[in-house]
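Incident review: delayed structure delivery

Summary: a single-chain prediction request sat in the queue longer than the usual turnaround. Root cause was a stuck worker, restarted by the on-call engineer. No data loss occurred. The affected request and its eventual output are reproduced below so the record is complete for anyone auditing the incident later.

Affected input:
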Amino acid sequence: MTFTAKKTYYFDTPGKANSADAARFSVERAKENGITTIVVASSSGSTAEIFAAAVNGTGIQLVVVTHVMGFSKPGEWEFDMAVAEKLRGEGVKIITGTHALSGLERAISRSPKLGGSSRTEVVAETLRRTVAIGLKVAVECVLIAADQGAVGIDREVVAAGGTATGADTVCVIRPAHTANFFDLQVREIVAMPRNR
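Output delivered after worker restart:
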């Protein structure tokens, strides 16, 4: 039997105050495991900037996954365009795709005529409630990044997500495409909030 001891970090509370530490832990684990890509969720660009600063000079590729167009307001993208231009200039990949764990399913469950939870939303809620909201976000971002071709499915990535804003959950994931969701594996929890 082979056993490798690795650090796991626990934040006392969730939220964006943990973003800088989450970025540092992401880079630390990527280096430790020989992982070349970090995937992070960012809706406005603030978290993306923190992670871009953390990966600067490491040779690690940063993939930022944003909310879809119209997530908060029809026809609008929440991500700051100036930040997007700056990050792209630094070699950061910015991906926007339909939410893999809601998307069309959310339209059905919110419909007054159809209503009710969908199986996809049950998967999302299970990840949110049993481990951490940030885990659900990290998993979904990796699915989106794989579907968009920004990450391969043959190499592990470090993924980070958060609770509402910022990053407070970091994990190592073997990616999969959304259509092959059950091939995705969360292999390590690097950091997460203890209280949710």
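Verification: The chain has a mean pLDDT of 91.
Action items: add queue-age alerting; document worker restart procedure.
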